Every structure is written in structure tokens, then in C-alpha cells.
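Researcher: I'm preparing a figure for a lab meeting and need a structural model of a single chain. I don't have an experimental structure, so a prediction will have to do for now. The sequence is pasted below. Please return the structure as C-alpha cells so I can convert it later.
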Amino acid sequence: MDRPHYEFEFSYPYEIYSFISEGRNGHVRKRVRFDFMRSNIFNLGFGDWKEDDSDLDDLVVTDNGDMEMVLSTVIRITIHFLSTNPGITVHFTGSTAARTRLYRSILSTNYDVIIRDFIVLGLIDGKWLDYEKNVNYEAFLVQNRYNFKKL
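Model: Understood. Here is the structure written out cell by cell.
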């Protein structure tokens, strides 16, 4: 996963990362947030930063022409979060079915590289299964292979 990405900033203790998307619609502030779900699982939230209420909008379509760079940055941020929080598992799903398909496509395309360092599970009908390419999952879990904790 050594692809070009934006530089990002980290805000402790809130586990919020931010970066600037630069494209045809100008500079757009993005945020990635990791929210505690339960036990050692954190949910990844990602979207445009809504400065008016300090939240993020995960339904907006920015269409800034830099989707690959933005997603590469979110992947880098997730890797950083997992490496600085041993034993943590990150849960993610798209805010729409199309976005979940996009995440599945990214995982499938980069699967051989990802599984070297990470364990990936997919959710189908309430069951977490080892990730397989091109299967329609509802959500995903990823954990650093070297700090693995059984769920």
C-alpha cells in the first residue's frame, strides 16, 4: 500500500485525523475518526469536515477528482492508528451500499499486500468470516497481524 497520499494531522485524545483534499473543487478538509464500539473494536468514520459543528459528513459526494489519493490517505491513517494502538481492531463499512462495494473492491485489489500485515474479516448475515476476494460483505474488520487478539 505504498501509494501517494496526503499528509495528515493527528489530534489526541480524540483519535481524529485530518487532511486536505486538493482537486477541481478546491481545498476540502477531510476527517477520519475512530470511535470506540466495544472491547478492542473501534469504528472508522470518514468524511468532509463540517466546520460549523465540528463533525464530519460521511454522505457528501465531494467529487474533487482525487478519490484515489483520498482513499490512500484513509488507508495510511488506518495503518497509523493500528500501529499506535496494539491489539485494536478497526470496523468499517460504507455509509451507502455503493461505498461498501468500493471498500470491498479496494480490499480485493490490494488483498495480497494487505494480508501480509493485516487480518481482514467480512460480515455476512451476522457472522464474521475470513475475508475472501469479491464476496459481498456488509462490513469489515481489520487488525494488525502482529498484534492479533481473538475477537
